[in-house]
């Protein structure tokens, strides 16, 4: 008789993090089931491909045949019927980060990428560079790297790359997720105020980042920008680990870059002021360049020669929903981007503007407009925290289209925008407005951290039908 596999059930399995946990557990030999309230691609596809059974919360009866352990996602709180059942029956439970630490990260060389922006992309870059030199790293990333086509895998080497999120761990553990990971190599991209639904102010987030710094060993490495005062304040609370800084060539830093193309699609990498080679890739924007520089620094700490890391980065394909080209119709290009914070929106549009400026005068696309389409869907945005800085994020857009759900009771400060703004209270009305406004050679960037009513494909299909 075959020995029964250790069975875990995951509540909130359809999120990118918890879905990644599910795939790692399955790959390691666990029996995995799970449930969620909304299950859609790409995670639904990945779970199906992994052979993981998923059900809706209202249909979930997993405690009739109790698993050995329930892994509870941080989207579930006290009062949720399934959470209450777990507690009332004294069922063994844990959080996703804790399960990851105990079952996957033990005895691994953990590379953690933290920061307000760029975590997904930078972690994907590091994982790809390690893969490029055949180190077969494991990884858990809050997105789908195009080079891998999946958000998580166990890997075969000592190295494991994890996107280190500062959001809280679970309803019973209010520490940031990343304090569980104990990285040997830690990248901190940047730090701004975000997640206003769980953090009172910037200082509260800095306290969590300080807790992260406390977990990095003395023989580890911290990679960080040389110009982020908020991160510098974190290190001033105490740091016991060597650090390497990155920045532009006209500032002092261990790692620096020289732009060889205004849009960031080509740049030179320097270490201690000495040229190491050039990156030529499909990415754009200054933020992408700096993410790439951090990835190369992290990879070197893992033993990858800088020249080879640079070559590997030239073959990096990006991450789905990070300026992903959805399609083109009637000479109109549509992009999908995850940007939902003013800084992320600004850097995305700056990169596209620089790319557009580089187009030759013979290229008709240089005459087109940049059309930004967004919804303030994140909790922080809807709480009005970024109300003053949001309009300035769209300075590189020629027109702005916004969807505001009436139930949010949130009003966009349209008078503060420099570009024309059009606000809609339904996806259908927004689609109609876009179709009436778009012109040949326009570039449309659709920005949201949700599914946005699948307006990306609806717009493309409508344009193709024309």
UniProtKB/TrEMBL annotation:
Annotated GO biological processes are:
cell division; cell wall organization; peptidoglycan biosynthetic process; peptidoglycan turnover; regulation of cell shape
What's the top EC group for this one?
Answer: ligase
Involved pathway(s) = Cell wall biogenesis; peptidoglycan recycling
Name all Mur ligase central domain ranges. 113-299
Q: Which reaction does it catalyse?
A: UDP-N-acetyl-alpha-D-muramate + L-alanyl-gamma-D-glutamyl-meso-2,6-diaminopimelate + ATP = UDP-N-acetyl-alpha-D-muramoyl-L-alanyl-gamma-D-glutamyl-meso-2,6-diaminopimelate + ADP + phosphate + H(+)
Q: Which GO terms describe its molecular function?
A: ATP binding; UDP-N-acetylmuramate-L-alanyl-gamma-D-glutamyl-meso-2,6-diaminoheptanedioate ligase activity
**Boundaries of every Mur ligase N-terminal catalytic domain copy:** 7-105
List required co-factors: Mg(2+)
Mind telling me which SUPFAM superfamilies this protein's record contains?
MurCD N-terminal domain (SSF51984), MurD-like peptide ligases, catalytic domain (SSF53623), MurD-like peptide ligases, peptide-binding domain (SSF53244)
- Protein residues bound to ATP: 115-121
Q: Which PANTHER family match?
A: UDP-N-ACETYLMURAMATE--L-ALANINE LIGASE-RELATED, UDP-N-ACETYLMURAMATE--L-ALANYL-GAMMA-D-GLUTAMYL-MESO-2,6-DIAMINOHEPTANDIOATE LIGASE
What is the protein name stated in its UniProt record?
UDP-N-acetylmuramate--L-alanyl-gamma-D-glutamyl-meso-2,6-diaminoheptandioate ligase
Source species? Hydrogenovibrio marinus
Lineage per the UniProt record: Bacteria, Pseudomonadati, Pseudomonadota, Gammaproteobacteria, Thiotrichales
Gene that this sequence comes from: mpl
